Amino acid sequence: MTLHDSVRHRLNTLEALMREHRHWQESMPDDSAFASTQPFCMDTLEPLQWLQWVLIPRMHQTIDAGLPLPQSFAVAPYYEMALEAAHPFRDTLLPELQRLDALFADDNA
């Protein structure tokens, strides 16, 4: 399995988990939410919205276009901080994000 295939698999798994746990939204946020200059659009999107509407589709676009994947990429640390310890999806989401991040470790990318 290529790195691109492995990343796509992780992205599909993230989407499936979000759908299974009812964190996948049917309606896209307003365009203005994507005009943020903050990392992760933290001032305009909730953390799970950013995963759904920014990270997952952009990574799929990168893979579909055959472009190089980012290096030293990591999103799990943000979600460790952004999702409260009591968030019901946190313990399910973090391990999957860590598996995605591991694909971008220096020895894999």
UniProtKB/TrEMBL annotation:
Gene Ontology BP, a term: single-species biofilm formation
UniProt family annotation: To the N-terminal of E.carotovora exoenzyme regulation regulon ORF1. The C-terminal part is colinear with YqcB.
Lineage, broadest ranks: Bacteria, Pseudomonadati, Pseudomonadota, Gammaproteobacteria, Enterobacterales
SUPFAM superfamilies, per the entry: YqcC-like
InterPro entries, A to Z: UCP006257, YqcC-like_dom, YqcC-like_sf
Name of this protein: YqcC-like domain-containing protein
Domain YqcC-like, residue spans: 7-103
